[in-house]
Each structure stands twice: as structure tokens, then as C-alpha cells.
Amino acid sequence: MAWGYLTTVFFLATVKFMFAPAAGRAFDLPFWETFFTCFAGGTFGSFVFYFSSELLIKYSHNRKVAKHEEFERLGITIPFKKKFTKTNRFIIKIKRSLGIYGICFWAPFFLSVPIGSIIVAKFYGKLKKTFPLIILGMGINAIVMTLIAYIF
């Protein structure tokens, strides 16, 4: 076993899940090692960011409020920031069309594991079935992407 390569693929999957199977293929890891390492890395990343998302959202909000207060204190006008970006519209479109399943399966895959897990927790964090759906999505995406990486 190549522990260095497995560790690299694991940590790549915790951050950017979509590219981890290609890295496993590039390191000449066997199919099943790549699959299980990607699945474990994606699941670990989802676990960490999903369950710490409330703290991260609160931290971000407090930081934004402090920055706003500091600008007001200094007399600096705050530039207008767009709220409806292309990414936000894409996320809302997926939420409306595919619902909880689309967000749980595709947000961690297409955006990134940290951002996708935080978005899922923000929209559906109170539901008990949300995190198991993320795990299921990670498994399906891991097998499909590993197959694609090893076939092509």
C-alpha cells in the first residue's frame, strides 16, 4: 500500500471531491483503494463541515457585522455587494427543482465538500435525514467518478 498516495487522495477528497479519483488513477492506485479512499475522504470532510457549519456561519456573520461597524466608525461608505450572483442563482435553482436530494447529492460534488456541506446544513440542517443523504450522495458520486477515472 502506498500510504502517501492514499493520504493525498483522502485529503483531496475532503476538499475537492470531484478531482480525487483522477488523482488516485494518476498515482496508479487500484480501483477499490481509490474508491474507498475518496469515499472516506469525502465523508470525513462532509462530517467536519456539516456539523461545524453553525459555528462557521455565526463566525462569518459576526465578522461581517464587526467590519460594517468599523467602516461606520471610520466614516467609510460600504460598497454595495451583489446578493444574487450566478452561483447563488444556481444553488437556488437546484434547491427549487431537485429539493433536498439535489442539494445533498450535488452541492458537495460540484461546488466543493466544505461549501456544499455548509449550504446543505444551512438549508436543511434541522432535518435528520440530511446527513445520511450526503453520505449516500458521496457513495454514488465516488463510484461514478472512480469508474469514469479508470475507464477513460
Could you explain the architecture of this structure?
This protein has seven helices and no strands. With 152 residues, it is an all-alpha fold. The chain has one domain (3-151). The longest helix is centred in the middle third of the chain and has 25 residues, at 86-110. It starts with a helix and ends with a helix. The mean pLDDT is 91.
Write the layout of secondary structure elements.
Layout: H1 3-15, H2 20-26, H3 31-51, H4 53-74, H5 86-110, H6 113-124, H7 130-151
Helix pairs in contact: 1-2, 1-3, 2-3, 3-6, 3-7, 4-6, 5-6, 5-7
In short:
By secondary structure, this protein is mostly helical. The protein is 80% helix and 0% strand.
What is the strand tally? 0
Percent of residues in helices comes to over 70%
Average pLDDT over all residues: 91
Query: Which term fits the overall shape?
Result: elongated
Main β-sheet: number of strands, strand sense, barrel status? Answer: none
Q: Please tally the helical runs, counting DSSP H or I stretches of 4 or more residues.
A: 7
Number of domains: 1
Low-pLDDT residue spans: none
